Protein backbone atom coordinates (compact mmCIF):
# COMPACT_ATOMS: atom_id res chain seq x y z
CA UNK A 1 0.00 0.00 0.00
CA UNK A 2 0.96 3.63 -0.44
CA UNK A 3 1.14 5.37 2.93
CA UNK A 4 1.58 9.07 3.65
CA UNK A 5 3.23 9.92 6.96
CA UNK A 6 3.07 13.59 7.94
CA UNK A 7 5.82 14.84 10.22
CA UNK A 8 8.05 12.13 8.76
CA UNK A 9 11.25 13.92 9.84
CA UNK A 10 10.08 14.01 13.45
CA UNK A 11 10.60 11.62 16.33
CA UNK A 12 7.46 9.48 16.03
CA UNK A 13 6.80 10.01 12.32
CA UNK A 14 10.23 8.79 11.27
CA UNK A 15 9.86 5.57 13.27
CA UNK A 16 6.40 4.96 11.79
CA UNK A 17 7.86 5.39 8.30
CA UNK A 18 10.68 2.94 9.06
CA UNK A 19 8.18 0.34 10.25
CA UNK A 20 5.94 0.70 7.23
CA UNK A 21 8.93 0.40 4.87
CA UNK A 22 10.11 -2.69 6.73
CA UNK A 23 6.69 -4.24 6.17
CA UNK A 24 7.02 -3.65 2.43
CA UNK A 25 4.80 -0.60 1.95
CA UNK A 26 5.58 2.44 -0.20
CA UNK A 27 5.98 5.45 2.06
CA UNK A 28 5.85 9.11 1.19
CA UNK A 29 6.20 11.80 3.81
CA UNK A 30 6.23 15.51 4.40
CA UNK A 31 7.68 17.78 7.04
CA UNK A 32 8.19 21.53 7.35
CA UNK A 33 11.34 20.86 9.41
CA UNK A 34 10.29 23.19 12.23
CA UNK A 35 10.90 20.40 14.71
CA UNK A 36 12.01 17.57 12.46
CA UNK A 37 15.44 16.67 11.13
CA UNK A 38 16.31 15.38 7.68
CA UNK A 39 18.72 12.90 9.26
CA UNK A 40 15.66 11.09 10.64
CA UNK A 41 14.14 10.47 7.21
CA UNK A 42 14.72 7.00 5.79
CA UNK A 43 16.38 7.19 2.37
CA UNK A 44 13.58 5.03 0.94
CA UNK A 45 10.90 7.57 1.86
CA UNK A 46 9.64 9.81 -0.94
CA UNK A 47 10.16 13.02 1.00
CA UNK A 48 8.60 16.47 0.49
CA UNK A 49 9.48 19.57 2.49
CA UNK A 50 5.90 20.77 2.72
CA UNK A 51 3.95 22.39 5.53
CA UNK A 52 0.72 20.56 6.34
CA UNK A 53 -1.15 23.87 6.17
CA UNK A 54 -0.35 24.14 2.46
CA UNK A 55 -3.48 22.38 1.21
CA UNK A 56 -2.67 22.54 -2.50
CA UNK A 57 0.71 20.87 -2.06
CA UNK A 58 -0.65 18.30 0.38
CA UNK A 59 -3.37 17.50 -2.14
CA UNK A 60 -0.72 16.88 -4.80
CA UNK A 61 1.29 14.38 -2.77
CA UNK A 62 -1.83 12.60 -1.51
CA UNK A 63 -2.71 11.34 -5.00
CA UNK A 64 -2.88 7.55 -5.01
CA UNK A 65 -2.39 7.28 -1.23
CA UNK A 66 -4.26 4.47 0.54
CA UNK A 67 -3.63 5.46 4.17
CA UNK A 68 -2.66 8.73 5.83
CA UNK A 69 -0.87 8.72 9.18
CA UNK A 70 -1.02 12.25 10.56
CA UNK A 71 1.85 12.50 13.04
CA UNK A 72 2.88 16.11 12.37
CA UNK A 73 2.42 18.54 15.26
CA UNK A 74 4.07 21.40 17.08
CA UNK A 75 3.88 19.59 20.40
CA UNK A 76 4.54 22.54 22.70
CA UNK A 77 1.78 22.22 25.24
CA UNK A 78 3.06 24.77 27.74
CA UNK A 79 4.01 27.24 25.00
CA UNK A 80 0.50 27.08 23.57
CA UNK A 81 -0.89 29.45 26.23
CA UNK A 82 1.64 32.08 25.14
CA UNK A 83 1.40 31.53 21.38
CA UNK A 84 -2.03 30.00 20.79
CA UNK A 85 -2.23 31.16 17.17
CA UNK A 86 1.01 29.44 16.17
CA UNK A 87 0.28 26.21 18.01
CA UNK A 88 -3.38 25.82 17.05
CA UNK A 89 -2.60 26.67 13.42
CA UNK A 90 -0.13 23.79 13.34
CA UNK A 91 -2.54 21.44 15.10
CA UNK A 92 -6.09 22.18 13.95
CA UNK A 93 -5.63 24.02 10.65
CA UNK A 94 -2.83 21.70 9.58
CA UNK A 95 -4.96 18.66 10.40
CA UNK A 96 -7.95 20.00 8.47
CA UNK A 97 -5.71 20.56 5.46
CA UNK A 98 -4.41 16.97 5.60
CA UNK A 99 -7.84 15.45 6.26
CA UNK A 100 -9.48 17.51 3.50
CA UNK A 101 -6.83 16.43 0.99
CA UNK A 102 -7.29 12.81 2.04
CA UNK A 103 -11.05 13.07 1.53
CA UNK A 104 -10.53 14.67 -1.89
CA UNK A 105 -8.24 11.78 -2.87
CA UNK A 106 -10.57 9.08 -1.50
CA UNK A 107 -8.04 7.86 1.05
CA UNK A 108 -9.57 4.85 2.76
CA UNK A 109 -8.15 5.35 6.28
CA UNK A 110 -6.75 8.21 8.34
CA UNK A 111 -4.80 7.58 11.54
CA UNK A 112 -4.52 10.65 13.74
CA UNK A 113 -1.90 10.89 16.48
CA UNK A 114 -3.57 12.86 19.25
CA UNK A 115 -2.15 13.61 22.69
CA UNK A 116 -2.54 12.82 26.37
CA UNK A 117 -3.10 16.57 26.71
CA UNK A 118 -6.72 15.74 25.89
CA UNK A 119 -7.16 14.62 29.52
CA UNK A 120 -5.86 17.80 31.15
CA UNK A 121 -5.92 17.59 34.93
CA UNK A 122 -8.34 14.67 35.09
CA UNK A 123 -7.91 12.20 37.90
CA UNK A 124 -5.52 9.34 37.11
CA UNK A 125 -5.42 6.65 35.96
CA UNK A 126 -6.65 7.83 32.57
CA UNK A 127 -8.90 5.40 30.72
CA UNK A 128 -10.17 5.36 27.15
CA UNK A 129 -13.73 6.35 27.99
CA UNK A 130 -12.66 9.32 30.13
CA UNK A 131 -14.26 12.51 28.88
CA UNK A 132 -11.59 14.85 27.47
CA UNK A 133 -10.95 17.93 29.59
CA UNK A 134 -7.99 19.78 28.05
CA UNK A 135 -6.65 22.79 29.92
CA UNK A 136 -4.56 24.53 27.26
CA UNK A 137 -4.88 25.51 23.56
CA UNK A 138 -2.70 22.58 22.45
CA UNK A 139 -4.93 19.98 24.10
CA UNK A 140 -8.09 21.77 23.01
CA UNK A 141 -6.89 21.79 19.40
CA UNK A 142 -6.08 18.07 19.52
CA UNK A 143 -9.55 17.24 20.83
CA UNK A 144 -11.11 19.50 18.20
CA UNK A 145 -9.31 17.53 15.48
CA UNK A 146 -10.57 14.25 16.98
CA UNK A 147 -14.17 15.48 17.03
CA UNK A 148 -13.99 16.92 13.52
CA UNK A 149 -12.39 13.74 12.18
CA UNK A 150 -15.26 11.65 13.55
CA UNK A 151 -17.86 13.88 11.90
CA UNK A 152 -16.08 13.93 8.55
CA UNK A 153 -15.55 10.16 8.58
CA UNK A 154 -19.29 9.63 8.96
CA UNK A 155 -20.14 12.13 6.23
CA UNK A 156 -17.51 10.98 3.72
CA UNK A 157 -17.42 7.28 4.65
CA UNK A 158 -13.76 6.67 5.36
CA UNK A 159 -12.11 4.71 8.16
CA UNK A 160 -10.24 6.41 10.96
CA UNK A 161 -8.30 5.55 14.09
CA UNK A 162 -7.18 7.91 16.83
CA UNK A 163 -3.99 7.09 18.71
CA UNK A 164 -3.11 8.64 22.07
CA UNK A 165 0.66 8.16 22.49
CA UNK A 166 1.91 8.67 26.03
CA UNK A 167 5.23 10.26 27.01
CA UNK A 168 7.25 8.62 24.25
CA UNK A 169 11.00 8.21 24.68
CA UNK A 170 13.70 6.60 22.55
CA UNK A 171 16.15 7.13 19.70
CA UNK A 172 15.81 10.37 17.69
CA UNK A 173 14.13 12.18 20.54
CA UNK A 174 15.30 15.79 20.66
CA UNK A 175 17.46 16.55 23.67
CA UNK A 176 18.26 20.17 22.81
CA UNK A 177 14.96 21.44 24.23
CA UNK A 178 15.40 22.40 27.90
CA UNK A 179 11.63 22.69 28.47
CA UNK A 180 9.99 19.50 27.23
CA UNK A 181 10.13 15.88 28.46
CA UNK A 182 11.99 15.17 31.67
CA UNK A 183 14.29 12.54 30.09
CA UNK A 184 15.45 14.95 27.40
CA UNK A 185 15.86 17.75 29.93
CA UNK A 186 18.08 15.55 32.08
CA UNK A 187 20.14 14.42 29.07
CA UNK A 188 20.50 18.05 28.02
CA UNK A 189 21.87 19.00 31.43
CA UNK A 190 24.23 16.01 31.67
CA UNK A 191 25.69 16.84 28.24
CA UNK A 192 26.40 20.34 29.59
CA UNK A 193 28.16 18.89 32.61
CA UNK A 194 25.30 19.91 34.89
CA UNK A 195 23.45 17.63 37.32
CA UNK A 196 19.81 16.70 36.57
CA UNK A 197 17.27 18.55 38.68
CA UNK A 198 14.85 16.45 40.72
CA UNK A 199 11.97 18.32 42.32
CA UNK A 200 10.22 17.34 45.53
CA UNK A 201 11.21 14.27 47.51
CA UNK A 202 12.59 12.28 44.59
CA UNK A 203 10.09 9.51 45.32
CA UNK A 204 7.80 10.49 42.44
CA UNK A 205 7.04 8.01 39.69
CA UNK A 206 6.66 8.92 36.02
CA UNK A 207 5.33 6.71 33.26
CA UNK A 208 7.01 6.54 29.83
CA UNK A 209 6.40 4.65 26.60
CA UNK A 210 9.27 3.37 24.47
CA UNK A 211 8.89 4.51 20.89
CA UNK A 212 9.10 1.01 19.38
CA UNK A 213 6.27 -0.18 21.63
CA UNK A 214 4.16 2.74 20.41
CA UNK A 215 4.97 1.98 16.78
CA UNK A 216 3.94 -1.66 17.24
CA UNK A 217 0.54 -0.46 18.47
CA UNK A 218 0.24 2.08 15.67
CA UNK A 219 0.99 -0.64 13.14
CA UNK A 220 -2.32 -2.28 14.03
CA UNK A 221 -4.21 1.01 13.80
CA UNK A 222 -2.66 1.68 10.40
CA UNK A 223 -2.92 -1.73 8.76
CA UNK A 224 -5.39 -4.03 10.52
CA UNK A 225 -8.73 -4.55 8.84
CA UNK A 226 -11.79 -3.39 10.78
Q: Provide the CATH architecture.
A: 3-Layer(aba) Sandwich
Helix/strand/pairing category: alpha/beta
CATH class descriptor: Alpha Beta
Percent in strands:
5-15%
Whole-number count of domains = 1
Terminal Cα separation, in Å?
16 Å
Element-by-element helix/strand order: EHEEHEHEHEEHEH
What is the CATH H-level superfamily? NAD(P)-binding Rossmann-like Domain
Biggest sheet, in brief? 6 strands, parallel
Helix content bin: 25-40%
Number of strands: 8
Going across the biggest sheet, name each strand in turn. 3-2-1-4-5-6
Indicate the CATH topology. Rossmann fold
Helix run count = 6
Low-confidence stretches are none
Mean model confidence by pLDDT:
93
Shape: globular
Radius of gyration: 17 Å
What can you see in these coordinates?
This protein has 226 residues and is of the alpha/beta class. Helices cover 37% and strands 14% of the residues. The strands form two sheets. The protein has a six-stranded parallel sheet with strand order 3-2-1-4-5-6, with helices on both faces. Strands 7-8 form a two-stranded parallel ribbon. α3 links the parallel β4 and β5 (109-113).
